[in-house]
Amino acid sequence: MTTSRSVLLVAVSGPDGAGKSSLVRRLATLLGERGVPVATTHCYGCFLCRNFPVPPRVREDGEPGERWARRASDPERQGSLPRRAHAFLDAADLAARITAARLTVTGRARGRQAVVVTDRGPLDGLVKFDLPTSSAAAGVFRRIAARYGLTLLVETEPDTLLERGWEDIAGTPAAWWARYRAWSVRLPGVARLDGERAPSLVAATALEQILDVVREHEEKTEHGGGSAGGSDTRPHVVVSIYDDADNPAYRGGGALVVGKVAHRLAEDFRVTVVTAGRSAGTEYRDGIRYVRLPVCRAGPRAGQLLFLSLLPFVARRIPHDLWLESFTPPFSTSFLPLATRAPVVGIDQGRSAEALWHRYHLPFFLVERLGLRFYRHLVTMNAADGSAIRRRSPRADVQVIANGVEPRLLDESRLGGGQFILFLGRIDTWVKGLDLLLDAYDRAAPPLELLLAGSGTPAEERRLAALVAARTLGSEPKIHWVGYADEARKRQLLRDSAFLVVPSRHETFGLVALEGMSYGKPVLHFDLPALRWMRDGGDVAVPPFDVAALGERMGELARDAALRRDLGRRSALAAQHYTWDEMTGRYLALAHRLLDTPAHARRQRKRGTSWQTTR
Asked: In CATH, what class is 412-575?
């Protein structure tokens, strides 16, 4: 027996010229092709707006005409009585139109999940009138917004709107975008679309968002009925990580790894990535949903703690079949398996409680060790960490899956060359051993300059700047900190470097070392257990934290091009064993093993039977 379902309301919002109407028509066609009952309606204001258009901007002092509206610069005023009445009339017209559209599509749906797509919505009404948040008219629009399951905000550059005929009488596009962004964070279910992309790509991304919400509605309302035609019924995998490529305080390798894994999982599953941000929001990129938790404003340290504390609550709000959790310092684990019945895979990319104990003498490792015991599935980057976790969580199924790199052809002409010694990574003086590196460079005085590339928190950047300045007084600088390097700059630095140095006190894998190896560069590092996957692969290891030995080998590599050529060739050959296709494929296989097995048969394997990816 088929059960009835509620109609999903979807609004396409944005300033005039953003391409809303054409997107609504495309979505109606695409949804209809997938058998989803759909209706559309144009919700541009009330009959007054359509028959007697007025400028949405307030007249400035000295301008001719009647001051009929509230000044935008005075947020305390409620606006003139005609403007408030106009806002209520606009909201009533919007409510009537969506009610009529719901009734129309419900008659055609015959019990299936139906969709109503409106050209504009309550977000556009709030932006148009820009009333104070506490006003009664704004409250009406917000109550209407609560009835919508999804609002698609089509984002375009101000210059694009001007090219499409934006009228100056409406105010500047930048001012309108400021309103849209301010109101969008106050409404539920707002997802942003990149309106600068090709219309077909925008429509495809919007379609995936709608189908994703359709399935979530079905999970909440259906208890055994059939599914709506065309909806995405694939299992839902959530990946959580604090790090993000847009976070200037980190931009670590963990965000890159999660991005690669998420894209590979999206081949067979619906994927959501939960990460940190300065404000709450949801966006879709390449078919993957990104949910940002508003914790970054608290600062890098407090933000990590807030992110860990919020994850269990987020896990209860997002329906999922499998959760992949990339561990976050300082406690790493968030006890997430206690908050969900679905399988949870802990990914050890940031388990640093032991290092923080040595640095700050705070017993974060006690919480980490307790939390690890609740995980039944764990992934580590290297064999040494895998052995350590097996000792602390004997019942867990521990997989060792290394990181990957894009395959590159070996350029023999570049082997042994290079203009400088390179450190590339997050700026964290103690963890990354930058103080040890600078001391070793001073001792060795090699003929090549030292380049430091990377960014970190403001405090860490100030600390590094002070260390570099203290070593360059009264002489021609040979140590240069070049700051954050984007992908293009990073590739250039790797190609032009003589060799890489990784002086870290703590690492989980060393992704930048693998990237350097793929360019045929030797890697000089301390002999940490987590970095022994590089052994005999063109690396040069010295005793941990031995500054004299580090300086000696640094000078040797800087002066001997033939040695760099031999080690660089071995590095390039070793890197060919670590491709993203191979490594992300192992995550995909793990997800299938957990999701394709009935729940009662999901038993952890015996200790010592996990497969590894390291040589």
From this structure: alpha beta
